[in-house]
Amino acid sequence: MKTRSGKSAARREFLLAAGGVVAGMALEPATAAAPASGAKATVAATLESIRRVAGSATINPGRVKLDLPELVDNGNAVPLSVKVDSPMTPSDHVRAIHIFTQKNPLPDVATFRLGPRAGRAVVSTRVRLADTQTVIAIAEMSDGSFWSGTADTVVTLASCLEEL
Amino acid sequence: MAGALINVPANARRGEIIEIKAMAAHEMETGFRRTQYGQVIPRNIITTFVCTYNGAEIFSADFHPAISANPYVAFSTIATESGTIACKWSGDNGYSLSQSVPIKVD
Fold it and tell me: Shortest CB distance from B68 goes to which of A76, A105, A161?
């Protein structure tokens, strides 16, 4: 039993190392294409994108519920649904919903613009996710306030990096 | 080729909130993929989606490369009157596609 587990540990290490090299090679073009390299820079890019949308307004946590599967088999088509707590009346409604990622090559995913005629503030779509990460939804209200919600998801097969 | 699908209930009561589901057939090439020879495949995506109800805009969206192939979007609207729900997708390389469905409200 012991030798078996030792063997499998060694095998695991090897696979990790081999995987690292392959992943490194696969990642190179992506990092060359995107100005940011590494997760941190991309988080900065995400914040920059969020600021471009929200300006200097305060973004309050809450009122936005972002639904994503906890575990994603295929990052190429991940069902995403966002629901904002709003009465959707002409005087108090959601003006727009913005979706951002932290580890995709580009932080922006989509912007949805809706109004009081929507009746309820619920929008669904399908997105690509390049890595296990936190996805952020920001709702822009008719009174000019911003609210945010996040969802964490684990991605096993990443989008964006495959070759043809 | 159909190109696009719009799913709207054929009949609705006035004031009812109905769900509109719209999908266009499009590869949504991200611009981040490469061929086996290392050449970048140029970006080719749908960038905007607009939905109108009897000519008045009720919903629009901006898409980025992170939207999946065959972009699907579902949203809602209040059924106000009988008429037409029209969707228009436009994007890179002059891509443009319009489709509409009738709705009967009583």
Answer: A76
Point out the residue among B32, B61, B80 whose CB comes nearest to the CB of A110. B61
* pLDDT tens profile A97-149: 999 999 899 999 999 999 999 999 999 999 999 989 999 999 999 999 999 99
- Is there a contact between A59 and A148 (Cβ–Cβ < 8 Å)? yes
How close is the nearest chain B Cα to the Cα of A10, in Å? 32
Domain ranges of chain A: 34-157
Across-strand partners of A99?
A: A110, A137
CB A126 within 8 Å of CB A154:
no
Q: Which residues contact A5 (CB under 8 A, 6 or more apart)?
A: none
Q: Has the ipTM of the complex gone over 0.90?
A: yes
**pTM beyond 0.90:** no
Complete domains list, chain B, with CATH: 4-105 (2.60.40.10)
Q: Show which of residues 69-108 on chain A sit within 8 Å of chain B, judged by CB atoms.
A: 76-78, 101, 104-106, 108
How far does A86 lie from chain B, in Å, by closest CA?
Answer: 14
pLDDT of B102 above 90: yes
What's the CA gap between A107 and A136, in Å, rounded?
10
CATH of A34-157, one of 3.30.9.10, 2.60.40.1400, 2.60.40.2470, 2.40.30.170: 2.60.40.2470
**pLDDT tens for residues B65-74?**
999 999 999 9
